[in-house]
């Protein structure tokens, strides 16, 4: 009788603590049991290697303060209809740099259990569409901004919105549609005004101020916002452009482009535009905010001089 040698056994399953530590995500108790055994799950929990964040939502101990792990746990607890919203969704879309201290989720129905301090649950009968980021259901960018904008501190609200517009992540019209659909919006009036500025062509707070409060008089009615000019094999976007005098107006100035490389790019761009007859006039943010009348007078004089 010929004996066939047995095949070598495969590698043993990794310990439960190693599995839950591999990624900052949440597991149900059933998932943990399928990965190991009821006894090993009880041991991991009692030893503190696995932490219960919410009912039937467990994470590896080292990830218990992680934004991603908590967001996964929140959605696992809240159910399949839930989605990350507000500033939490804005963070996941890369619109705010630091994760918020609270995870915010949106639900179409109320939850009667009391969430922990780090979790905020909001209700909306008809939740907007979602996308998936890192395994999380997240509101689409426009709805993320509309639900999160008013919960940012006032001095930090403008840049995330304009960053989304500049990058092409969202269009001003999509933002306008999202705010129309939302039943309750924190800082609705301010956000509506800012969206209108974006629809008018602003792509930064500085440009918003320029369009809304500085170059908003009748003598500048012919200026074209966000005008693109082809120059050789390059295309440049001008904050404002006067087609009559072929004058470009930049509202960001040296305060925005303060790095030496960025400044060099500005100088080269101005030279390239001058080669096709377009003169660039730059105003710093300080002048736009503190000396709007001077900015208007200066630009008016430049335009009159170039009309001759």
TrEMBL record:
Please indicate which superkingdom the organism of origin belongs to.
Bacteria
Quote the Gene3D superfamilies the UniProt record gives.
Answer: VSR Endonuclease (3.40.960.10)
- Entry's Pfam families? DUF559 (PF04480)
Q: Where is the DUF559 domain?
A: 239-293
Alphabetical list of SUPFAM superfamilies matching this protein: Restriction endonuclease-like
Q: What protein am I looking at?
A: DUF559 domain-containing protein
């Amino acid at each position: 009788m010929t004996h066939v040698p047995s095949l070598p056994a495969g590698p043993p399953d990794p310990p439960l603590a190693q599995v839950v530590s591999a990624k900052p995500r949440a597991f149900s108790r059933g998932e943990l049991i399928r990965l190991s055994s009821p006894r090993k799950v009880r041991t991991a929990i009692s030893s503190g290697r696995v932490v219960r964040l919410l009912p039937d939502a467990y994470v590896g101990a080292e990830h218990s303060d992680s934004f991603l792990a908590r967001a996964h746990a929140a959605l696992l607890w809240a159910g399949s209809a839930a989605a990350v919203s507000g500033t939490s969704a804005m963070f996941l879309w890369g619109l705010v740099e630091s994760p918020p201290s609270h995870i915010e989720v949106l639900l179409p129905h109320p939850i009667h259990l009391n969430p922990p301090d780090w979790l905020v649950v909001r209700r909306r009968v008809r939740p907007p569409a979602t996308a998936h980021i890192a395994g999380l259901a997240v509101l689409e960018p426009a709805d993320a901004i509309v639900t999160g904008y008013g919960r940012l501190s006032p001095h930090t609200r403008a840049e995330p919105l304009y960053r989304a517009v500049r990058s092409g992540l969202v269009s001003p019209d999509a933002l306008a549609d999202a705010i129309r659909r939302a039943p309750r919006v924190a800082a609705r009036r301010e956000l509506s005004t800012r969206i209108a500025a974006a629809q008018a062509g602003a792509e930064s707070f500085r440009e918003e101020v320029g369009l809304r409060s500085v170059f908003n008089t009748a003598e500048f009615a012919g200026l074209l916002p966000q005008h693109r000019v082809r120059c050789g094999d390059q295309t440049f976007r001008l904050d404002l452009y006067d087609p009559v005098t072929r004058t470009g107006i930049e509202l960001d100035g040296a305060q925005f482009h303060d790095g030496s490389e960025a400044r060099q790019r500005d100088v080269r761009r101005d030279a390239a535009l001058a080669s096709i007859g377009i003169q660039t006039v730059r105003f710093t943010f300080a002048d736009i905010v503190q000396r709007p009348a001077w900015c208007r007078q200066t630009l008016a004089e430049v335009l009159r001089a170039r009309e001759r």
